[in-house]
Amino acid sequence: MGKCFFCAIASFFVFGFLQTAEAGPKELKRDLLQEMLASSQIVVIDVYADWCGPCRRFEPIFKQASEHFSQQYHFFKLNGDKERELARYFNVTAYPTTLYFKEGREIARHTGCMSMSEFTSQLDGLSKRI
């Protein structure tokens, strides 16, 4: 009985860790572009650069929102320095830029860092508008 209980508890923690590891935004690369464009849910992309101070301030906000709203939206991160072609494709000229897509079509964008309340307000506004 003790071994089974220990195994059950250990499995719970391992499974919980794996779920947590998968939570949050996916890193957008060229191979995920079609998946992103085909989504019927609203897709949110944070285009950032590692050296960008406002990007670093926005990162934990974006991650927390992506975990909280994962059922309603698909969240991606795009490193504009490493994926320059994709950043150009999306016509990104400043960091951070947050892009919003629905069924492959850009429906909104925001340039600059946002607070959690600004970001969630923007998400709520988009979902009500569409």
Provide a brief overview of the structure.
The protein is α/β, with parallel strands linked by helices and 130 residues long.
CATH A-level architecture = 3-Layer(aba) Sandwich
Distance between the termini: 53 Å
The helix tally amounts to 5
Largest sheet: 5 strands, mixed
In N-to-C order, the SSE pattern is: HEHEHEHEEH
| Count of DSSP strands | 5
Mean pLDDT: 83
- Adjacency order of strands in the biggest sheet: 1-3-2-4-5
Number of domains: 1
Offer a few descriptive terms.
130 residues; alpha/beta; 5 helices; 48% helix
Explain the overall architecture:
With 130 residues, the chain is an alpha/beta fold. The protein has one domain (25-129): Glutaredoxin (3-Layer(aba) Sandwich). It has helices at 2-22, 33-38, 53-68, 84-89, 116-129; strands at 26-27, 42-48, 73-79, 97-102, 105-111.
Which helices and strands appear, and what pairs or packs with what?
Layout: H1 2-22, E1 26-27, H2 33-38, E2 42-48, H3 53-68, E3 73-79, H4 84-89, E4 97-102, E5 105-111, H5 116-129
Parallel strand pairs: 1-3, 2-3
Antiparallel strand pairs: 2-4, 4-5
